[in-house]
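Troubleshooting log. The previous structure file for this entry was overwritten by mistake, so regenerating from the original sequence record. Sequence copied from the archived sheet and checked twice against the printout by T.R.
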Amino acid sequence: MQQTTNTQTSYNAQQNTQQDQNVSSNQPEAKFNAGAVSATIWKNEFSGKDGQKGSYHTVSLQRSYKDKQGNWQNTSSLRINDLPKAQLVLAKAYEFLILRDQESD
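Regenerated output below.
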């Protein structure tokens, strides 16, 4: 996993086609990075009790770091200096989801 070392937001969003979702449903819909902090958007599909299908999105927030052996690890624990980066990537994730919903209306 390659990391960004500055505080600029790097945007990596991929819109999955229906065919891509059938092949691999574990792919994120979008990912936003600011340094070692990232927010990943996941699309989840469900079937209701009445058989009606639908979908919803979840966002995972994590920080990457190198362990003592030099291997990249992920954690959901943030340090105080990570909070502004978390705020930035979460705002970008929210913006992505809101704009995506507006385009589908």
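Residues 9-100 form one domain. Archived copy saved in two places this time.
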